[in-house]
Each structure stands twice: as C-alpha cells, then as structure tokens.
Amino acid sequence: MTGIIDYGGGNLQSVRNAVRALGHEPVLVHDADALEGVSSLIFPGQGAFSDCMTALEQRGLTGPLRDWIMADRPFFGICIGYQVLFEGGEENPGVPGLGILRGQVVRFAQQPGVKIPHMGWNTAHVVHPGHPAWASLGNDPFFYYVHSYYPQPEEEEVIAATTPYAGLEFAAAVERGRMFATQFHPEKSQATGLQLMGNFLSARD
C-alpha cells in the first residue's frame, strides 16, 4: 500500500492522481497510526520549510518519518519533501529539518536576467543512468520545476541528478538505499514523471 504524507499542504491531488494512474490506490497519512500497513511513502510538497516541519511535529510524524527513512523503507520525497531531508536552510534559519542528509537548503542568488522562482521544464542530468529509478528515461530527461530554494548536499555520493540554472548545477535529486527524492515535480511532468514514479513503485519491494 502506498502512503502519501498529508501535512496540511502540498500537491496532494496531483500525486494521488499519478499514483492511481500507475495502478495503485494510495492512502493519506495524517499521523503515525496511518502508517500501519503502508509499504512505501511519498512525501509531496509545496510551501515553506518551517510550515512543513511544524505541521509534521504537530501530527506526530517527525520521529516516525525519520525512523522510516533510516530503516531504509521505500521513500520518495518531492520538492519540500526533498528539502526537509536536510539539516536546515536559508528560508527559515534556525528551523531544523529531519537531518537525514547533511547539508543546507539555499536560495538562488539574484542575478540579472535570472527569474526566481525557477519555474518550468528543465533537464536533469542523471549521475547513475543504470540505477533502476531512471529505467527507460535516458541520461537527460526533462521535468517540471517550481522553486526558489534548493539543497546543497555535503555528501556528493547521494546526488542522483543535477540541473543547470542560475549559472550553477544544483542537486535536482538524491538517492540512498531505497530513499529517493527530487526537487522537480514528477506528478506535473507528464509521461516522464509517471515513468519515474512507476519505477519507484515497482522497485519498492
């Protein structure tokens, strides 16, 4: 059973529709009790880092979510569900993330001719094309992005894909064991995004 973290925000309906299109019936996870019977977790996201972390804490999900990922159970984080894996960030200084990965979430620097937020389609340069997550997607698939902040992992080995924007290559995705997370929105990325999510769901066991 596929659980979708519901912290009171995020792009839940699009993610639910994508999971259903892949032949799975998702359940919404509002609290720790709702994790019972769930075999894989998707953490969709929109909104501020601090609001997300506060909501997780209020629902009693912070510890169980951290335990889930540290136990190497299947997890897919999207946008803010990717960013909260890190220790903290510039959007809300002093607000701790889950601390699963070392590093901070930073804002794109203002530059002439560069639009912030980074919005629209862009390529993801896959670091390990042979990884099952990228099956049938090639080395440089395109995905849809909407964000002003991006993580800077301290552990280079967790970076699964990079994307060029604002004069740099930022970490567009990370992977470690059965944890996978992306800054882009696969649920908004049409057939390419569905393929990526399908790869995750088919490999979860």
Distance between the termini: 11 Å
> Do you know the CATH topology?
Rossmann fold
Number of strands: 13
Q: Could you tell me the radius of gyration in angstroms? A: 16 Å
- Just name the CATH architecture: 3-Layer(aba) Sandwich
Strand content: 25-35%
Regions with pLDDT < 50 over 5+ consecutive residues? none
User: How many helices does DSSP assign?
Assistant: 5
Q: What overall form do the CA principal axes indicate?
A: globular
CATH H-level homologous superfamily name: Class I glutamine amidotransferase (GATase) domain
Task: State the domain count.
Answer: 1
Largest sheet: 8 strands, mixed
Instruction: Specify the structural class.
Output: alpha/beta
Helix content: 10-25%
Order of helices and strands: EHEEHHEHEEEEEEEEEH
In the CATH hierarchy, what is the class?
Answer: Alpha Beta
Give your account of this protein's structure.
The protein is an alpha/beta fold and 205 residues long. It has one domain (2-202): Class I glutamine amidotransferase (GATase) domain (Rossmann fold). It has five helices and 13 strands. It has an eight-stranded mixed sheet. The protein has a three-stranded mixed sheet with strand order 5-6-10, with no helix packed on it. Helix 1 (12-21) links the parallel strand 1 (2-5) and strand 2 (27-29). The termini are close together. The mean pLDDT is 95.
